[in-house]
Amino acid sequence: MRITVLANRDLHSNIALNLLLPTLSQHSFTIFLSDAVGAPSEGYQAPQGLQEMRFFEQELFKNTIEELIELQPQSGRRYLSFKELSELAEQPIRTCKNINKEQELEAFRRSAPDVALSIRFGSILREPAIEVPTLGVINLHSGLLPDYRGILTTLHSLVNQETEVGCTLHYIDSPSIDTGAIIDQRLIAVDKSKSLLWHVLQLYPSGCSMMNNAIEDLAAGKNLASTAQGPSSKPYFSLPTSEDFERLSQAGFRVWNPEDISQLYQLFLSKQ
Hints:
Rossmann fold
């Protein structure tokens, strides 16, 4: 089977690709990477909490962790850098700013995917892109649909005092965001002693397990059972504001804790 992965050049996408790698390696796969998730509206000022999340997700990962990964021998190492992942793909990783523009859309078509996997991808797919993979586009959303659609929905789950957070595997079948039929969901218990960053990181092992299962079923010629989403009483969550992070603090959560740095070290820089 031919698989094209649409992801983002950040911490969580790298984790996801590494978790998917044992399954991807059984197929022919290509990777397209965007450089950012969530386009800010004019005049939007990123609050301090979001800047801290972006530091861990992008700056620390790109400027420090990836370089440290490649200084160590691959043997026995748990995760690979994007550069190392690129060497295992059918062709080098392609940076994709807008998959709907003709040049990048044509590159997507040339990858000839049976299925496309979307993980934190920075472009909203329009109909021509959605129609490219013969078996559809499957997205891993880091929130429980239909109630938690949008950006950084784990924050809003914690603010709303949910006892569980989770992720959803669903189809992208229209340009409407986070509305496609649900294939599967996974939940984890909220831990009041842990940070927002920790809760987001916990979503990817179970989320990628769902995605691995979906790939295996499709490769075996099975149809994926899915259920149309029902209505939601909650709004679509756009980029968070300072008030959102203030409510997160009032709910008893920090954006990150010092032990999160140790967790990242264990993930990327310690041997298996």
